[in-house]
RNA sequence: GGGUGGCUAGCUCAGCUGGUUAGAGCACUUCGUUUACACCGAAGGGGUCGUAGGUUCGAAUCCUAUGCCACCCACCA
């Protein structure tokens, strides 16, 4: 048989892969193992942003190893390929590209035109990725390839969004979000990274306070000052309002007490900017403080910032600090303050928190889903996600990451899922188009009850007229409005006297019709009606306790819910009935809150926090901002409806990956059921990098348990990062240490790249990779090739029956024992996900036992065809999951009925495992090494024949029967075995030197007189010294009664045996040294 | 501030449910073209297992402190 001397991967790999794929061996349907136990993995889809890196290569190697192993074990095995559209990331890449190539931005294109550019780019990336993935040898079932943005996945996304919307889990809200001014979109909490920076800390004079801030420009959005509730210094100030001097004049703040404030830091007082700080926003919510937005989506100061409007936040900061200094408002400035800036994880731009209307998933809302085992009795997404891992339904490897997972999941906030980018799944929500319908709402003028500070809401009990001032103010307002050119046809007014009178003044000015409307009446004040109206009086206290007032009616006060229903029903009605009229509304304070919040995405509490205009003030509201909204999977008539322009966070679709990949190509979108789903879901293992445990793993668990009532996977195997030789992340800026898997594979073969990523790589730990490492595995692959080459060229019949093996010689029995131990151990290690150790054991066996010893012996002992062929076949099988190409290449020479990829995983034959045989072989090895030692020490080339004598006190026969082996390996002309009685020494023959003492005796090598006595003495003495040291340690240990008493018997026995053996060796060595004198 | 991982031979890493004289690869030294392989073979040098305590008959392995290095999380203005 002609076999190449060296293995050249470049010639073989591609052909082998194509052949596997052509025969459909990656496809479980071709293998037809339905009914067998399933083993499935879905490939973590690489982003279509470009090409693969070593992280991908590592992922592919590990997953392919698992899949091939299980396939060989007869499992119904599926590995699904796919790619991820990676919304922001991909859009960024394409934006950069069009900017570099044509200096254009996406806004120079129509949305659809831009999207088709991105789609083209994505298609090209996919093709590149596919080719790279194939090169790695990945046995993926390409017939099931998926893409997070293809038709099936789009249908699934819409369906899940609708489900969640129906369950009230997805909602639109006006909240503070993380905003990237560069990407022009929101970011999820975990899409933010922190950057250590030095910045200035400004100590500013702030009314009665002095406080520190890194962002003086946000002072324009301040609405409160917060202190710690336990802080005695500010105790009396809590709850009070103060006027604070600022660069745009005075403004009002409320002092609040909140645990979030650290009394020890700075002055213990914090300015609160709820519009532009997540922490401040939360505090504002807790204390019903107004949110004031002053920075827009471009990171510029808004129109409400006076002369600073239009500046970037940085420009504004400088300008404001300058102005504050001029006003004497800056106490001091600390330079070099350590600060952590939040930046966008994609583009590293500083993130600006700002309030914005977005879609969220409520992870804390308890829902009941009867058809879902996890939600049957009511649970939140968060609770279920925690439970399935706590209960062990999902096992994370390595286990320590479970802790990380719990910690993150427990602290999970509402998940913002809308993104203001174009590429991605467009949010399946449609809004009814409608004409703008601007109405003015006015509070009545000052009435007598206002003047006398009395509460009044019971029209039947008492009703108050306007004061003179009230009338005059309204008349002036009417004049002003007229001057400004406003017209009104109808005035709807609350039927209280003060509102009716106000309406009349307006009606006369505008010649408008008055329609009294009960639904616009003041909020019912219950038992407080008629009482004194003081700020923070009993009525205010009850109403301002929103939780208590929201749904309930304490002391007869009309609830917020009731107020909202009647006012909104009125607004809805006029919007429908009077679309062509100019409408004015005259009403009271609390109903104005509702009008203020009408059609916004504010929560009830936030609407309440909006407050209302003062007596005699007006607001303008476009009633069209409240739109009819449907969540639907359908495409609606675009003349009547328009779709939400936002897209979904890429992790929304990625979160569904474990099961959407198992839907058929022609899925009807009805329910999440399919043959594959039944057969392969939950998937067996999710293998991915620990860096995306939050982004992806957690989200898949959250989404899948909700949608299916199943976990997405039973096991999570997390691999580490691949680092360069210096332990740093590989990057394009360090090309000298950065390795491209393709280049490395083309140079050393992809088997070698795989091995370098598998051996030495344990779960959850980072590994370093560099050329020398890959090279050493290339060398191993070549060694394996040559092992096969030797066996194939030396056996007389490669088709020899390997079923019933019989070991004739000691070496045969030894290798069979070792090999079966190996099979047992490797199988166990692979089952325990310890791929690295399994690979190491395989390598050690292949190289240091099979090649170094057994094959050498096979050159002497003949008739080993069956054993050699059997071991070759099974060794190849065990290596196959690690190095599929070279093993299949060798296999093709073996005249086998089927490909190695689908052949059976070797069974361990325990009967062959024999410790006694292994011990005996150790003796032969020791004799051999002893003789080789002498050759090395005395520089005797192998071309020069020598003689040796072995003196033993037992097993002489065994040694004698192996003498041919020893003779050949060590090149002896003569090998004599002498048996001496135990306790007596064999006198060192003249002209011989000791090759070392071993467990049974001593080996002597004939130097034909050329013995260097002093050298020999030195060598023996050295051996004796170390041995005596060892022995004295042993003796000390054994003379310790505690040890003998406490240690397990077998341990003590073993030590005793060692002691005995060492004593014999010492005696023998001493005798030899004595002989030399 | 909380948490996790690492610290073992010159380098990269195994070993760590406590019990052979602590291993491998690379590098190094010496020798070698013995009919599979120089992408090879033989032999060898090299480590008080970060430090300090403790538990134990016995610790690289368990516990407690602690020092570096790396990473993750968190609302210190």
Mind explaining what this structure looks like?
With 1077 residues, the chain is an alpha/beta fold. The protein has 6 domains: 26-163 and 653-748, 3-Layer(aba) Sandwich (Rossmann fold); 195-340, Valyl/Leucyl/Isoleucyl-tRNA synthetase, editing domain (Isoleucyl-tRNA Synthetase, domain 2, Alpha-Beta Complex), CATH 3.90.740.10; 435-626, Phosphoglycerate mutase-like (Rossmann fold, 3-Layer(aba) Sandwich), CATH 3.40.50.1240; 770-913, Orthogonal Bundle (Isoleucyl-tRNA Synthetase, Domain 1), CATH 1.10.730.10; 919-1011, hypothetical protein PF0899 fold (2-Layer Sandwich), CATH 3.30.2320; 1015-1075. It contains 35 helices and 34 strands. A 5-stranded mixed beta sheet has the order 21-20-22-19-23. A hairpin with a 3-residue loop joins strand 33 and strand 34. Helix 9 (381-390) packs antiparallel against helix 10 and helix 33 runs antiparallel to helix 35 (1049-1075). The radius of gyration is 41 Å and the shape is elongated. The two termini are 58 Å apart. The model has no long low-confidence stretch (mean pLDDT 91). The chain binds one RNA strand of 77 nucleotides through strand 8, strand 12, helix 7, helix 10 and strand 30.
């Amino acid at each position: 048989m002609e076999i190449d001397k060296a293995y050249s991967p470049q010639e073989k790999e591609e052909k082998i892969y194509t052949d596997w794929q052509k025969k459909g061996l990656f496809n479980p349907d071709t293998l037809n193992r339905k009914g067998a136990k399933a083993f499935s993995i879905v490939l973590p889809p690489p982003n279509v942003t470009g090409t693969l890196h070593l992280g991908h290569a590592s992922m592919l190697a590990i997953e392919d190893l698992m899949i091939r192993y299980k396939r060989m074990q007869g499992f119904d095995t599926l590995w699904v390929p796919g790619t991820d559209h990676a919304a922001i990331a991909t859009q960024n890449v394409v934006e950069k590209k069009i900017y570099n190539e044509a200096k254009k931005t996406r806004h120079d294109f129509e949305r659809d035109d831009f999207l088709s550019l991105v789609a083209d780019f994505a298609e090209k990336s996919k093709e590149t990725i596919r080719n790279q993935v194939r090169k790695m040898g990945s046995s993926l079932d390409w017939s099931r390839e998926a893409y997070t943005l293809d038709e099936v996945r789009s249908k699934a996304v819409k369906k899940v969004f609708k489900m969640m919307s129906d369950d009230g889990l997805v909602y639109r809200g006006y909240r503070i979000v993380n905003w990237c001014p560069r990407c022009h979109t929101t970011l999820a909490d975990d899409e933010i990274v922190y950057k250590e920076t030095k910045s200035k800390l400004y100590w500013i004079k702030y009314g009665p306070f002095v406080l520190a801030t890194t962002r003086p420009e946000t002072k324009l959005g301040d609405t409160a000052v917060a202190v710690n509730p336990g802080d005695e210094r500010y105790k009396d100030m809590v709850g009070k309002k103060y006027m604070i001097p600022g660069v745009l004049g005075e403004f009002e703040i409320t002092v609040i007490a909140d645990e979030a404030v650290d009394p020890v830091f700075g002055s213990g007082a914090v300015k609160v900017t709820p519009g532009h700080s997540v922490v401040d926003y939360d505090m504002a919510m807790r204390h019903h403080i107004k949110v004031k937005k002053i920075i827009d989506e471009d990171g510029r100061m808004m129109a409400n910032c006076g002369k600073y409007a239009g500046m970037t936040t940085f420009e504004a900061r400088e300008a404001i600090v300058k102005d504050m200094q001029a006003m004497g408002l800056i106490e001091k400035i600390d330079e070099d303050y350590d600060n952590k800036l939040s930046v966008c994880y994609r583009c590293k731009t500083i993130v600006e928190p700002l309030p914005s209307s977005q879609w969220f998933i409520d992870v804390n809302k308890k829902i009941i889903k009867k058809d879902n085992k996890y939600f049957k009795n009511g649970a939140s997404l968060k609770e279920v996600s925690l439970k399935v891992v706590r209960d062990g339904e999902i096992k994370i490897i390595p286990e320590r990451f479970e802790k990380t997972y719990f910690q993150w999941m427990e602290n999970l906030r509402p998940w913002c899922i809308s993104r203001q980018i174009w590429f991605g799944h467009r949010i399946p929500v449609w809004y009814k188009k409608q004409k703008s319908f601007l109405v003015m709402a006015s509070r009545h003028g000052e009435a007598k009850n206002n003047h006398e500070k009395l509460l009044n809401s019971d029209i039947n009990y008492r009703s108050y007229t306007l004061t003179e001032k009230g009338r005059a103010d309204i008349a002036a307002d009417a004049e002003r409005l007229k001057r400004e050119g406003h017209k009104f046809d109808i005035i709807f007014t609350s039927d209280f006297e003060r509102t009716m009178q106000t309406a009349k003044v307006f009606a006369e000015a505008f010649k408008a019709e008055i329609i009294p409307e009960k639904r616009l009446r003041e909020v019912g004040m219950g038992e407080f009606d008629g009482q004194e109206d003081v700020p923070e009086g009993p009525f205010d206290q009850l109403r301002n306790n929103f939780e208590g007032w929201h749904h309930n009616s304490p002391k007869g006060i009309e609830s917020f819910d009731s107020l909202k229903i009647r006012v909104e029903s009125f607004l809805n009605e006029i919007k429908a009935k009077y679309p062509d009229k100019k409408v004015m509304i005259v009403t009271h304070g609390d109903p104005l809150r509702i009008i203020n919040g009408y059609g916004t995405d504010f929560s009830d509490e936030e609407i309440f926090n909006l407050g209302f205009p003062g007596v005699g003030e007006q607001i303008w509201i476009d009633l069209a901002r409240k739109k009819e909204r449907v969540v639907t999977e359908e495409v609606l008539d675009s003349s009547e409806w328009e779709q939400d322009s936002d897209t979904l966070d890429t992790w929304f679709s990625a979160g569904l990956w474990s099961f959407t990949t198992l839907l058929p190509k022609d899925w009807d979108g009805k329910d999440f059921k399919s043959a594959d789903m039944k057969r392969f879901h939950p998937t067996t293992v999710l293998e991915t990098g620990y860096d995306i445990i939050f982004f992806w793993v957690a989200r898949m668990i959250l989404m899948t348990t909700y949608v299916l009532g199943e976990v997405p996977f039973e096991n999570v195997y997390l691999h580490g990062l691949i680092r360069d030789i210096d332990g740093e992340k590989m990057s394009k800026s360090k090309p000298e240490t950065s390795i491209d898997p393709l280049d490395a594979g083309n140079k050393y073969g992809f088997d070698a790249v795989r091995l370098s990523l598998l051996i030495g790589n344990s779960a959850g730990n980072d590994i370093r990779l560099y050329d020398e490492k890959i090279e050493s595995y290339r060398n191993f692959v070549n060694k394996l090739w040559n092992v096969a080459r030797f066996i194939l060229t030396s056996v007389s019949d490669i088709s020899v029956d390997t079923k019933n093996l019989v070991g004739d010689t000691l070496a045969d029995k030894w290798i069979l024992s070792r090999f079966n131990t190996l099979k047992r151990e490797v199988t166990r290690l692979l089952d325990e996900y310890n791929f690295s150790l399994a690979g190491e054991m395989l390598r050690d066996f292949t190289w240091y036992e099979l090649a170094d010893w057994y094959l050498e012996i096979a050159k002497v002992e003949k008739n080993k065809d069956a054993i050699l062929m059997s071991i070759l076949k099974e060794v190849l099988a065990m290596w196959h999951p690690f190095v599929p190409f070279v093993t299949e290449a060798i296999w093709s020479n073996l005249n086998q009925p089927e490909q190695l990829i689908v052949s059976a995983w070797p069974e361990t034959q325990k009967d062959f495992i024999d410790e006694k045989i292994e011990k005996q072989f150790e003796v032969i090895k020791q004799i051999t090494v002893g003789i080789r030692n002498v050759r090395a020490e005395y520089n005797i080339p192998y071309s020069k024949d020598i003689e040796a004598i072995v003196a033993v006190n037992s097993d002489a026969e065994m040694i004698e029967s192996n003498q041919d082996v020893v003779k050949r390996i060590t090149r002896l002309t003569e090998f004599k075995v002498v048996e001496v009685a135990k306790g007596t020494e064999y006198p060192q023959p003249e002209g011989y030197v000791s090759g070392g003492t071993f467990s049974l005796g001593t080996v002597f090598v004939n130097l034909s007189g050329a013995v260097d006595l002093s050298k020999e003495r030195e060598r023996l003495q050295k051996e004796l010294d170390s041995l005596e040291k060892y022995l004295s340690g042993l003796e000390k240990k054994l003379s310790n009664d505690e040890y003998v008493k406490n240690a397990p018997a077998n341990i003590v026995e073993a030590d005793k045996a060692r002691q005995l053996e060492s004593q014999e060796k010492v005696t023998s060595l001493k005798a030899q040294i004595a002989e030399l004198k």
